[in-house]
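Hi support team,

I submitted a single chain yesterday and got back a structure, but I'm not sure I'm reading the token output correctly. Could someone confirm the output below corresponds to the sequence I sent? I've pasted both exactly as they appear in my results page.

Thanks,
R.
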Amino acid sequence: MKTILRPIFAQSPAFGEDPPVPNDLSLRQSYGITINPADYIESGWFSFDSRFVKSIAIDLMVMSWNQVPAGSLPNDAGKLAYMIGERLSKNMVHGLSDALRDWFLCSDGRLYHPMVAHLALERKRRFSERQAVWERRTGQAAVTPMQPPPPRPRKRGDP
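Hi R., thanks for writing in. Yes, this is the structure output for that exact sequence:
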């Protein structure tokens, strides 16, 4: 049974608007998501009534970072529950509805959060700047986009 969630449109753009990030934006190989505590508190995630809803909201934010386009989520309750490792139940659907209160549905049929979209665009901008500096210094293009740092050397006693 496929349950489509209808997000709650608080202070978000209208339904059907173009996505705030490019359709091909992938941040899967980036270093990770960096959250400013002030942005986190102002975003509304900090003020959820229950820890259950807060944990769902944070899990979905982190999972949206690895989606393509980055910062988006599918508009399907079953897929969202599966992404965070929960079974779809009546309680879970209510938790998802509460956790998605600041997300909005765009014309591509995916859910977006203003803060996560801003973070994704900022990460893309910073990567483009670093790539331009690299090309100026070396005269060659970077081989792998957003490649993770090399592993640190193992020390004696490390697992």
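A quick pointer for reading it: The first strand starts at residue 72 and ends at 74. Let us know if anything else looks off.

Best,
Support desk
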